[in-house]
């Protein structure tokens, strides 16, 4: 949080027991696939105020995700289809995603969603 990193190298982040990752307020413009591949048990992913140009494909692997924040994710045009696979998701924040044009029906697949901010 609050750093001046602009990129992450193509690495595999092996922390299978990690449950929380806060990357908010970063200047990183993308997360490469390998960075999230080793954290399949992640439950909290906070990408608020990030400047990513696209969401990482590795999100598909985060089936245990419960909290997902994209607050002020300015460049987001559409949600990834994989979001509908997050059956454990309880909280999603899409506030101030000004370029978001499409809310896919996949949000209806998330049965236990308790908090949805738009």
Number of domains: 1
Indicate the low-confidence ranges by residue numbers: none
- Going across the biggest sheet, name each strand in turn: 1-2-3-4-5
Radius of gyration: 13 Å
Count of DSSP-assigned helices? 1
Under CATH, the homologous superfamily reads: Ribonuclease Inhibitor
Describe this structure in words.
- With 118 residues, the chain is mainly beta.
- It has 1 helix and 5 strands; from the N terminus they run βαββββ.
- Strand 1 (20-22), helix 1 (33-37) and strand 2 form a beta-alpha-beta unit.
- The model has no long low-confidence stretch (mean pLDDT 80).
Comma- or semicolon-separated keywords:
single chain, 118 residues, mainly beta, Leucine-rich repeat, LRR (right-handed beta-alpha superhelix), five-stranded parallel β-sheet, 5 strands, 4% helix, 13% strand, globular
What is the topological layout?
Layout: E1 20-22, H1 33-37, E2 44-46, E3 67-69, E4 91-93, E5 115-117
Parallel strand pairs: 1-2, 2-3, 3-4, 4-5
Short description, anyone?
The protein is mostly beta strands and 118 residues long.
């Amino acid at each position: 949080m609050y750093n001046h990193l602009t990129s992450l190298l193509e690495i595999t982040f092996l922390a299978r027991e990690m449950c929380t990752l806060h990357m908010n307020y970063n200047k990183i413009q993308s997360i490469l696939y390998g960075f999230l591949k080793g954290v399949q048990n992640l439950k909290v992913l906070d990408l608020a105020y990030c400047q990513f140009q696209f969401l990482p494909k590795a999100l598909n692997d985060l089936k245990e995700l419960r909290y997902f924040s994209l607050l002020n994710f300015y460049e987001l045009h559409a949600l990834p289809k994989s979001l509908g696979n997050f059956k454990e998701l309880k909280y999603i924040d899409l506030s101030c995603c000004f370029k978001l044009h499409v809310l896919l029906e996949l949000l209806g697949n998330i049965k236990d969603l308790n908090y949805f901010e738009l």
